[in-house]
């Protein structure tokens, strides 16, 4: 699992919380309709990043534990959720999503913003599924970029804002096990200077039928590929989507 640098984590904290704002209401609606959600059982936010989603879940009244490999990301998560940590409703721990154990009972495990694609290989991905299954949650919900979606990574893009310049260079070819993207940025500091950061990230290019088989091998019984439009609706052709959500239940 990739552990992101402090420079990248800082920009992530400032610029990339929008996905959580879109996802949170859908996840909350889904969870509130389950017995575990109605009992207000805690949520495990796997690969929680800077804690954007965790905070929204906490604001909705659910206790949250966040796990991430990057200590730089966790520092932002702890700051973003400080009052909930002080109240004992939030906990953030450093750990590898492919090999972890967390104490406590969780009604829901979530992992968003294609975090599962960032695991190093298929073995690590299946190990993650097994670790989550051992927690015995009501459901495990995560999203993934499909191989079709990863084609969008190809090419170079440049974005400029008053306080940030970002250059993305992505590569993905059909049949390759991973897509790669190098992000080079210059972020403005409080003293007016600019800090340079560089991060190379990857996404596993995983056939979705393999994902389903790995979940079944890990002890999950009911698996569906869906979208945010309706987490209860099975997709007939999930590989035709750029991004899918996966709902696994025991």
Provide an overview of this structure:
Helix 1 packs parallel to helix 5 (71-80), helix 2 (18-32) crosses helix 4 (52-59) and helix 7 packs across helix 9 (208-217). The chain is built from 9 helices and 11 strands. The longest helix has 15 residues, at 18-32. The chain folds into 2 domains: 6-146 and 205-249, Vaccinia Virus protein VP39 (Rossmann fold); 149-204, N-terminal domain of TfIIb (Single Sheet). It is α/β, with parallel strands linked by helices and 250 residues long.
Specify the CATH homologous superfamily of the largest domain.
Vaccinia Virus protein VP39
Average pLDDT taken over every residue:
94
Low-pLDDT runs of 5+ residues are none
Overall 3D geometry?
Answer: globular
Oligomer class: single chain
Summarize this entry quickly.
The chain has helices at 6-15, 18-32, 35-38, 52-59, 71-80, 82-86, 122-134, 147-150, 208-217, and strands spanning 43-46, 64-68, 90-94, 108-111, 139-145, 155-160, 164-171, 178-188, 194-204, 222-226, 243-249.
Mind sketching the topology for me?
Layout: H1 6-15, H2 18-32, H3 35-38, E1 43-46, H4 52-59, E2 64-68, H5 71-80, H6 82-86, E3 90-94, E4 108-111, H7 122-134, E5 139-145, H8 147-150, E6 155-160, E7 164-171, E8 178-188, E9 194-204, H9 208-217, E10 222-226, E11 243-249
Parallel strand pairs: 1-2, 1-4, 2-3, 4-5
Antiparallel strand pairs: 5-11, 6-7, 7-8, 8-9, 10-11
Helix pairs in contact: 1-5, 2-4, 7-9
Features:
250 residues; alpha/beta; Rossmann fold; N-terminal domain of TfIIb; 2 domains; 7-stranded mixed beta sheet; 11 strands
């Amino acid at each position: 699992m990739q552990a992101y640098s402090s420079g990248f984590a800082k920009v992530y904290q400032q610029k990339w919380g929008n996905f959580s704002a879109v996802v949170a209401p859908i996840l909350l609606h889904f969870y509130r309709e389950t017995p575990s959600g109605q009992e207000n059982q805690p949520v495990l936010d796997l690969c929680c990043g800077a804690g954007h989603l965790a905070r929204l879940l906490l604001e909705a009244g659910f206790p949250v534990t966040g796990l991430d490999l990057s200590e730089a990301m966790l520092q932002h998560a702890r700051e973003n959720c400080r009052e909930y940590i002080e109240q004992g409703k939030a906990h953030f721990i450093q750990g590898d999503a492919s090999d972890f154990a967390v104490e406590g009972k969780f009604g829901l495990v979530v992992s968003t913003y294609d975090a599962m694609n960032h695991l190093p290989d298929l073995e690590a991905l299946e190990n993650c599924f097994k670790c989550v299954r051992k927690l015995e949650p009501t459901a495990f919900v995560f999203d993934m970029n499909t191989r079709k979606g990863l084609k969008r990574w190809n090419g170079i893009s440049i974005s400029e804002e008053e306080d940030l310049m970002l250059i993305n260079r992505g590569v993905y070819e059909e049949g390759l096990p991973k897509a790669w993207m190098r992000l080079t940025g210059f972020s403005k500091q409080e003293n007016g200077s600019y800090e340079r950061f560089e991060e190379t990230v990857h996404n596993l290019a995983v056939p979705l039928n393999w994902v389903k088989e790995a979940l079944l091998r890990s002890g999950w019984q009911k698996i569906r590929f869906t979208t945010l439009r309706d987490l209860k609706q099975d997709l007939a052709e999930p590989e035709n989507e750029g991004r899918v959500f996966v709902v696994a239940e025991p």
